[in-house]
Amino acid sequence: MFAYVCNTTLATVITKYLTKVSVHTWGIAGRSVAILYGLGAVPFVLVVVVGLIVGSTRVKLGYHNSAQVALSFLTAVPFTWLILYIIPAVVPTIFRSKLNQAFQKFLVSGLSSVLRGG
User: Cα–Cα 20 to 30 A to 83, which of 10, 54, 73, 76?
Assistant: First the structure.
């Protein structure tokens, strides 16, 4: 969810102050990063191909030019990668709340008591 908010905010800022971007292409490109790490290279390539098809369709329909579609793709991929994988590795305390840690302890202690039969 955090990645969606950050990507939407950046796309909005670029569109408002620099140039229009293709949110359709941006959305597909951003998701491709998570697919690469979660499902591997083949699904990643398939999603990139879909992104290229969507981007070229947006250009062909006249909603964007090729530079706007390229900017969308070339910004979404590294930005999403930064949000999903680099920031949590560098600043892990932001992504681990006390409540989450307490809930995990509760689950582990509850599971261990069930396994012990108590």
Answer: 54
The tally of domains found in the chain comes to 1
DSSP string, 86-101: IHHHH-GGGG--HHHH
Calculate the alpha carbon distances from 81 to 6, 37, 99, 104, 106 in Å: 12, 10, 26, 26, 32
Q: Considering the domain boundaries, does residue 21 fall inside one?
A: yes
Sign, CA dihedral 24-25-30-32, equals positive
- Domain assignment of residue 117, yes or no: no
Does pTM top 0.85 for this prediction? Answer: no
The Cα–Cα gap between 111 and 115 comes to 6
Separation of alpha carbons 14 and 76, rounded Å: 12
For the stretch 73-88, pLDDT in tens is 999 999 988 888 887 7
Task: Tell me the torsion sign for CA atoms 7, 8, 9, 10.
Answer: positive
* Lookup: tokens for 69: 């579609």
